[in-house]
User: Fold this.
Amino acid sequence: MHLVIGWPAYLLIGTTGSSVRNHGMSNHFVAWGGAQLFPWRAWKLYLLSTGGVGTMLGLLYWWVQVRALAEVLGLYGGPLMVVNAWLTAVTWMQHTDVNVPHLDESLWTWMLGALQTVDRPYHWILDILHHRIGTTHMMHHLVSTIPHYHAQEATVALRTAFPHLFQVDPTPITEALWRLASQCVVSYDHGDGTHWFLPPPSPPPCARADVWRIAGKSYDLTTFAARHPGGANRIHDTKGPGAVVPQRVESAAAADTGTDL
Assistant:
């Protein structure tokens, strides 16, 4: 579904687009209002674009009336779906991966946002047909006006100067798509302004606030605390990182009801 209707859904209702605009709902053909996408200075280009789409829809309707719906679907609809699927796949693979975070407003800047992309080499035929947009995609983000015939040279220079900024993934297309579809589904807030498709790592046992440390090991003494002669609070006060269980309860607690974590 993502590859089949992803592109028209993005154009019509803003699917997978920014949540800032009208709770994520936007329409590229109704450009102004609560979900404004384009600046007012671009209104002529917007009208030309929308008018062109409307004209094409009119021609398709005329084609159906003159010929047949099956012919239009076969000769136009089928190829259009292939183009939409490939466009969505390429866009997905260039901007999404388990190693590419999303940034919230506390961390996002234009430059940091532009760097969150992956350069992916495709088959050499596709690289030629796409003017190597896959292997020069970060340069496209940073300098969108650069001619495609200079993008490769500029990418080499930028990678040489700033190798730590680039992510290059030579994974074959089918494998990369499967990884995105299976692993890049839910993003997790890591608490530092970044959201990743992998959950944050679990803290080590010694850093957990719900365990007791005894002789360098972590134990759960909840059951023991409930029947401790001195009261449960005396045990709970020694719980968490940095706390030390008194020597007099170590052996009894660990040997009796403590569960080694």
About this structure: The radius of gyration is 28 Å. Confidence is low (pLDDT under 50) at residues 246-261. The beta strands are 102-103, 188-189, 194-196, 212-214, 217-220, 259-260. The first strand starts at residue 102 and ends at 103.
